[in-house]
Amino acid sequence: MKKYTILSVILLSVLLSLPLVSAADKVQVLVSIPPQTYFVQRIGGELVEVASMLPPGAFPHTFEPTAKQMKALSQAELYVRIQVEFEQAWWDKIVAANPGMSVVDSTQTIDWLEGTAHHHEEGTEEAKDEHEHNGRDPHVWLSPAAVKLQTEAIYQGLIHVDPVHKDTYLRNKEQFVADLEALDQEIRQILAGLKNRTFMVFHPSWAYFARDYQLQQLSIELEGKEPSAAEMAQIMKTAQAQNIRAIFVQPQTSKRSAEIIASQIGAQVKVLDPLAADWLENLRRVAQTLAESLQ
Ligand code: ZN
């Protein structure tokens, strides 16, 4: 008996001295959209491996997961929700594909904006946007303040599935929050002193950003669709009245109506990407592009 005990002790000490995190040991986390991979990676660091259901270039309002992705789901230990359309539409199937997976909803403490209520000028308010769901604007990952509200849920999700590394996750979360606060200050400085604070976009992704930095977003897209000829004429009038110098498109949507309106009013078409995975750098670029364009 004693022999076996000694053997177990030796075996245990060998096991304990093995390097801690091989790739297979990392906490497998799934998120819905690429910017969330950045958020989870910041808090999880080396301890996690994060994958996004939405691949680069896809559009979260119309995307449908592939069979291969649904299968890959069974590897995940944690899903961080953000309540975009496809995630809601597919949620029952996602859970069915991996019933044992832990889930956190990072939007629990979000101060939701109404879905594209301040769409166009008064008079077109009856043009309700399909884009919203439950009347809420889903683009909650596009302001540092809104992301800060999501860090606690991500942290709680990680310590739930990997309580041993609680201290590391806490340290990482605090550093990330400090970086979010610094980015917020930096964006305020970049946008300070702009006289013209109204910008026009094709797809209305930037309402939270606009709210936090006292900007006004005007959208071309109506009800998730390209506008009709009559609506286009109305939008052009608005753009001229607001002295719009640039119209912003995103890589995942059509540029056609933005180009038509821009050429009619002598504005430029520029790209702002709401779904870039290098989230922090991207938001800084967005602020700089807006500042240059709204001079
Ligand atoms: Zn969107």
Write up this protein.
- The structure is a single chain.
- The chain is of the alpha/beta class and 295 residues long.
- 45% of the residues lie in helices and 12% in strands.
- The chain has 10 helices and 8 strands.
- The chain has helices at 2-16, 34-44, 67-72, 85-97, 144-161, 166-191, 207-212, 229-241, 256-265, 279-293, and strands spanning 27-31, 48-52, 78-81, 102-105, 198-201, 216-219, 246-249, 268-271.
- Strands 2-1-3-4 form a 4-stranded parallel beta sheet, covered by helices on one side. A 4-stranded parallel beta sheet has the order 6-5-7-8.
- The longest helix is centred in the middle third of the chain and has 26 residues, at 166-191.
- The relative contact order is 0.13.
- The structure holds zinc ion.
- Zinc ion binds next to loops.
Short description:
The protein has 295 residues and is α/β, with parallel strands linked by helices. Helix content is 45%, strand content 12%.
